[in-house]
Amino acid sequence: MKQRQERLNPASEIVQKLGGEAKVSEITGAGLTAPYSWQYARGRGGTDGLIPQRHHVALLEYARTHKIDLKAEDFLPLSEEQRAAS
């Protein structure tokens, strides 16, 4: 169940894996509040748990050089079929 909840909001999982909002802000060059907003629903001014694609490469490169298990698929939420199977 925990994995399912995390994949419904991949930004939260990725931010946690990489060391928190301040670290992700530093890696991406985004403002300090950006990683927080990525974890919020659109109705609250967020991105529904999705990190903007323009930041994916920097985050994946940081993870690779620091031996953090992060894959491109981690940026995507579970599909409807995957949710039903969980």
Order of helices and strands: HHHHHH
Biggest sheet, open or closed, and with what strands and sense? none
- The helicity comes to 40-55%
Tell me the number of helical segments per DSSP (H or I, 4 or more residues long): 6
Strand percentage, roughly?
under 5%
Structural class: mainly alpha
* Shape estimate: globular
How far is the N terminus from the C terminus?
Answer: 7 Å
Estimate nothing, just give the exact number of structural domains.
Answer: 1
- How many strands appear in the DSSP assignment? 0
Low-pLDDT runs of 5+ residues are 1-7
Q: Over all CA atoms, what is the radius of gyration?
A: 13 Å
Task: Give the overall pLDDT as a whole number.
Answer: 88
Question: How are the SSEs placed, and which strands pair?
Answer:
Elements: H1 2-8, H2 10-18, H3 21-28, H4 34-37, H5 56-65, H6 80-85
Features:
86 residues; mainly alpha; globular; disordered N terminus
Structure explained in plain terms:
The protein has helices spanning 2-8, 10-18, 21-28, 34-37, 56-65, 80-85. With 86 residues, it is mainly alpha-helical. The protein has one domain.
